[in-house]
């Protein structure tokens, strides 16, 4: 179980630099590790969400060649928050999961922008939100919906859940 | 999915916050080390050492998968294109056959019209709408009948020569008895020797020349047989066929010969019905090449 989770995180973290560019629509590519983090957080609680976010964020930081720790920090926070939401709300319904994914992507974008501002990131807030964060949040929601649907079908065919 | 109502112990309850704080601190440490070093720093380099081969492998898998997908799409497109080309080829073949058919029909009609223009009597063109090809009866039905002025025994010809005669007239159709019908008999003569005889159809589909007087030269293989004009049904000089064999009956009174009809009964599609009368010899009005032996 832990091995499969580790493999999933590794694959999800590295998928961002290999698979995600192939899935881009125009200039917008989905944030696959973030989708994974949020879904894991919602399903398995704040600890798993936080650690998963940290792991995939760190992989992304290293793979993308940015500030190591920036995405690890924001994704760990998002995973934690997703886990807290999962503890307090009924989030089994995809109608909750998908908007949650969109909102958490926006939150992660805001958090990352704020953090990078501390490190003198030059881009303007409006541009980043309009051209990067918002389209990516929508795309993540769409892709997350497809993923949740696929998992629901898969779970229906299996007695044990992949997540539990 | 919610965990509301579950009794988490104090250590478990605070553990998640401990995990969060630890993770945040580690992240900030990485950030701090990275920014101070002016790059990703040593932690980044260490991680990169492990993940770079994995990245390369994943990239290879991804490119292979997309390559396979691309190949599949190419194959699918090629298959669709192949299907479209096959359909196009089939359509062009049919079109080509239609064009050939139209050309053949055009040629036949031209020859028929040319003959009609040459003949010194009134004629009416008709199209074959039915064929009876059994052993008992051999006939064709044309789309000309009583309403077109067709009467019984009207001779029917094709550009090559005689086809037969009308034996039944309906309002808008007429049945033509073919020369090789077993009950058909036409007064004919050998064009070369003017020896008279009767051309009769046989149950096997052949045409036989009967009752040809032994004296007067008789007939040879290759001789052209034409209508004699006797009997008043057929005008004189309509080509009937060529002698392909002469049957020697010993001391019998008459000669017999097998004929190869000039008309192709199986393929006839248009005919000329001779509605007028003439006493003239019609042979000169038929194409000479059609009357050559072996034509």
Describe it.
With 164 residues, chain A is an all-alpha fold. Chain A has a single domain, classed as Arp2/3 complex 21 kDa subunit ARPC3 (Orthogonal Bundle), CATH 1.10.1760. Chain A contains six helices and no strands. In chain A, helix 5 (94-118) runs antiparallel to helix 6. In chain A, 50% of the residues are buried. The model of chain A has no long low-confidence stretch (mean pLDDT 80). Chain B has 295 residues and is α+β, with helices and mostly antiparallel strands. Chain B folds into two domains: 12-118; 123-291, Beta Barrel (Thrombin, subunit H). Chain B is built from three helices and twelve strands; from the N terminus they run ααββββββββββββα. Chain B has helices at residues 10-37, 41-118, 288-291; strands at 123-132, 139-142, 155-158, 161-169, 174-178, 185-190, 196-201, 207-213, 224-227, 239-247, 254-261, 270-274. In chain B, the strands form two sheets. Chain B has a six-stranded antiparallel beta barrel. Chain B has a six-stranded antiparallel β-barrel with strand order 6-7-8-11-10-9. In chain B, a hairpin with a 5-residue loop joins strand 6 and strand 7. The longest helix of chain B has 78 residues, at 41-118. The radius of gyration of chain B is 46 Å and the shape is rod-shaped. The termini of chain B are far apart. Mean pLDDT of chain B is 82; it is low at 1-5. At the A-B interface, helix 1, helix 3 and helix 4 of A face helix 1 and helix 2 of B.
Q: Please, how many helices of chain A?
A: 6
Instruction: Tell me the major beta sheet of chain B.
Output: 6 strands, antiparallel, barrel
**Strand residues, percent of chain B:** 25-35%
Overall spatial form of chain B: rod-shaped
Order of helices and strands of chain A: HHHHHH
What is the rounded distance between the termini of chain B? 96 Å
Helix content of chain B: 25-40%
Class per helix and strand makeup of chain B: alpha+beta
CATH topology of chain A: Arp2/3 complex 21 kDa subunit ARPC3
Largest sheet of chain A: none
Unreliable stretches of chain A, pLDDT < 50, 5 or more residues?
Answer: none
CATH superfamily of the largest domain in chain B: Rod shape-determining protein MreC, domain 1
Task: Please give the radius of gyration of chain B in angstroms.
Answer: 46 Å
Integer count of domains of chain A: 1
Distance between the termini of chain A: 9 Å
- The count of domains of chain B is 2
Broad shape of chain A: globular
Report the CATH C-level class of chain A.
Answer: Mainly Alpha
Helix content of chain A: over 70%
Number of helices of chain B: 3
